[in-house]
Amino acid sequence: MNKKPLIAGAVILLAGAAALAWWLQREPAARSEIVLFGNVDLRQVSLAFNGSERIARLAVEEGDHVKAGQVLGELDVRTLQLRADQARAQIGVSQQALDRLKTGSRPEEIAQARAQVAGAEADARLAQQQVERLQSIGQSTGGRGISQQDTDAALARRKVAQAQLENARKAAQLVVTGPRKEDIAQAQAQLESSRAGLALLEHQIAESTLKAPIDAVVRARLLEQGDMASPQRPVYTLAITDPKWVRAYVSEPDLGRIRSGMAARISTDSAPGQPIEGRIGFISSVAEFTPKTVQTEELRSSLVYEVRVLAQDTGDRLRLGMPATVRIALDAQQRPQAKTESRP
Asked: Quick one: 191 and 90 in the same domain?
């Protein structure tokens, strides 16, 4: 029996099988999901006191869960309290001065001013009578019964008495009229200034208590009791636990297959069989080179687009910087179709 045809047939079959296998390998497989690789990311808050005093108490440690409004620390406010007491006393002084001006002159003050006018009038009459007496003597004696010096002194005393009388009358008029409206406005402004100073001190006392602005986890405690605090020195660093997301990168061929709001599953190396539900929250519109920390199946130098996948981490399993794998399920319309070729 001639074996050459059999051998030739076997060679042809093997060649056909190899060609078919090569053809199938070059056809793109219809994927049902997109797999992305990235790292867990979250927001952080650095908290510092607004004042520059010594820290009297710190209430939480690293890893503690804190609620919004919870007191985290307090400053020593004894100096501020003393300043506030001084400001309250100054407010009392300013208030009394304003009330005195608004009330005006008391009846006793008006009576006193009128009595001073009456006394000045009596002095003026006495000085006038003295001048008249000296002038009468001088006329009756032909100027020899009184010296010119006595006459000049009497005239000067009359002028002084008349000036004092005019001054007393003006002072009495001011007492009756009362304070000017400008003086009242000035006293009112001084009172408001004192109140503003007290409000500032009370605000500083309130700011000496450090509170959590949001539900979070204490990531770092940077100062201790007895340290001097300042607005430039953070006391705590808080990690905000909600929202959390995975920062991943998608290649350009897969960019058109995903959209915001699509469901995703997030898994980590520590719990690969317990995925966390998530959804796509952000897709960058700008291409960039893949960061060195991200492991992908493509070359690191290829252009990709950043994707943020929001995680529903109710169990608080994800940690900042943790590597994570994101799987995004594709529907039938989004899956790439394999090339087909009609054969006779």
From this structure: yes
Q: Count CB neighbours of 95 within 10 A.
A: 15
Rounded CA separation 337/101 (Å): 93
Whether residue 316 sits in one domain with residue 290 = yes
What is the count of structural domains for the chain?
Answer: 3
- Confidence at residue 27, expressed as pLDDT on a 0 to 100 scale: 44
In a domain? residue 192 = yes
Task: Please give the Cα distance from 221 to 43 (Å, whole number).
Answer: 17
Cα gap 277→262, rounded to integer Å: 11
pLDDT band at 175 (very low <50, low <70, confident <90, very high): confident
pTM of whole model > 0.70? no
Across the chain, how many H-helices and E-strands are there?
Answer: 6, 11
Could you tell me if residue 152 is inside a domain? yes
What confidence score (pLDDT) does residue 192 get?
93
What pLDDT is attached to residue 341? 39
Position 7 in a domain:
no
- pLDDT at 294 exceeding the cut of 60: no
Range(s) of the domain holding residue 228? 45-76+208-236
Rounded to an integer, what distance in angstroms lies between the CA atom of residue 269 and that of residue 275?
10
Note whether 234 and 53 are within 8 A (CB): no
Q: How far apart are CA 277 and CA 281, in angstroms?
A: 13
Task: Give 275-293 pLDDT, tens digit per residue.
Answer: 999 999 889 888 877 665 5
SS3 at position 211: strand
Q: Retrieve residue 226's tokens.
A: 């007895």
Q: What share of the chain in percent tops pLDDT 70?
A: 82
Shared domain for 229 and 302, answered yes or no, is no
Cα 198 from Cα 191, distance rounded (Å): 11
